[in-house]
Hints:
Layout lengths: L4 E5 L6 E5 L9 E5 L6 E6 L5 E6 L6 E6 L10 E4 L6 E6 L1 H21 L15 H4 L2 H16 L3 E2 L7 E5 L4 E5 L5 E4 L4 H5 L7 E2 L2
Parallel strand pairs: 9-13
Antiparallel strand pairs: 1-2, 1-8, 3-4, 4-5, 5-6, 7-8, 10-11, 11-12
Amino acid sequence: MAGERIAFRCSACGGATLGLLGGITRSADMLRVRCTCGESALDVKKKGNGGLHLSVPCVYCRDNHGFSLSLDAEREDNTVRLPCPFSNMDIAFIGNEESVTKELERTGEELMRVIRSFEGEELSDIQPSDADEGDVCDPAVYDTVNFLVRDLEAEGRLTCPCGEPKPELRFSDEGIQVFCTSCGASYTFYAKSGAMAESYLSLDSLELS
């Protein structure tokens, strides 16, 4: 782990930040990697069992997400990818400098496609507003909609104008929006509670437009 890097994108400015992970296993119990803009930071804490707990800024929902990792997971020959639990988009990486740099380039392009798909110009155009932050992190709603979307996708009952849907999910002001990362077509599930999300489970097909 001595030469391993940890990388993330700032939830405020979208800039890529890399830090050196190895030091935490030798003398420090905590590592903080802060974006140069000063608005966000990734924290790594050593746990009593020898594992690590990470608090990672998320460019998609502006919250920090928590992850627990065993030290065995971070190996020089393997890039660890940490996804946002709500959008399923990768938001942080652990590995050698070359591998995490490639992942930052890949996810930077992915982020720009998402912003353009919503006809936005900057990161804040796809993030939830402050007024809706209380509704953003409801895992019951996300899990229900994600289950439905993945089931319809697997059975070929999810369609979009480009003919090859690549659906991803994100929170919106109204609930959860499913969008195709290829063409930008979307569908909004107007659900902010588990019960409202479950009402959509009777859908036998879904068309993005």
